[in-house]
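Minutes, project check-in
Item: structure for the 248-residue chain
Input as provided by the requester:
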Amino acid sequence: MKLKLNGMQIKVIAVLAMLTDHIGAVFLSDYVSPFWMGSYRVSFMAAGIVGKFTVGAYYCCRAVGRLAFPLFCFLLVEGFVHTKNRTKYLLRMLVFAFISEVPFDLAFYQQPFYYDKQNVFFTLFAGLLALCFIEWLTDREKVKQVIAILISVSVIILLLFVVNEVNTDYSVKGVLLVICLYLFKKHGVMQAVSGALLLNDKKALLAFIPIYLYNGERGNCGRLMKYGFYIFYPLHLLILGLLKMIIY
């Protein structure tokens, strides 16, 4: 029997990968800096026993974490394709982007308001909005389609400019990844190639194994579980941020 994964199972994998990544980023990054020499390999080789353990643990956490973002982008595209209400989907993403900002700043910058970096929900919102305009292009008369193309391209360029200026997590690459996953949703190889090229990280290719195993089914996801995944992002960041403030 061939292994298959539904949407719920992929969400769990993405959440666990994200949590692992954030534990490494929040708690291990400060310990790695004294041993850091420009790359993981050089740092690991040059460090002593304690340094090797620290750098190795940090690298493992961040490597596992590379699975998370491509999986969340894939799930975003699937949600976009199957949702009955795009407006509610967009609004929910934007609301949780604002809810998550203070926990995000506390976890990674130890202050409630850090204006130089914004959380990943803003990137996902921008990607979702871009998909709305791409879909808007279809099924139109020739003259109207030309106008729609000009408007959509202009809006997408504006979105890319905004996420770059406000420096959202994954920024321009993140929005482009969402677009590529949507455009190549029937071509798994192209999804994987575009993901690896955009993120410039071979480890991100591992995320396309669960995507390849996706069976197209949503899985057992009630209302509580549905919102639980949204709530988990700001909640776990808040807990990690408060724990770091207590420990340090």
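Outcome recorded: Residues 7-32 form the longest helix (26 residues).
No further action items on this chain.
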